[in-house]
Amino acid sequence: MISAGGQERAELYSIGIESCIVGAAISAAVGYASIRVLIRLVVRGKFYLFAFYCFAIGIATFFLLIHLSKKKRFFIFAVLVESIIYHAAQNCT
Q1: Are residues 56 and 86 in the same domain?
Q2: Mean pLDDT of each 10-residue bin along the chain, 93 residues long
Q3: How far apart are CA 83 and CA 90, in angstroms?
Q4: Are residues 25 and 40 in the same domain?
């Protein structure tokens, strides 16, 4: 198991409540907008366009995880996440 050092751990705990509130508000706004767009796609019969979104996010996540990984375990995790996203995108079409 990989654990953060003392200073890194202190930095993680130094996140203020303001940051948490802003993060929650932005997450709620993006979630609401995403659901509105998704409902609009379903109603208009263009749900297949969501597959392109799933594919783009999957590719971006894959490369981000590879870029951030420094150990082999994380690469295996990245491949697993990419596989899950790929199968989710397949179910969208």
Answers
A1: yes
A2: 51 70 89 89 87 85 73 64 73 61
A3: 11
A4: yes
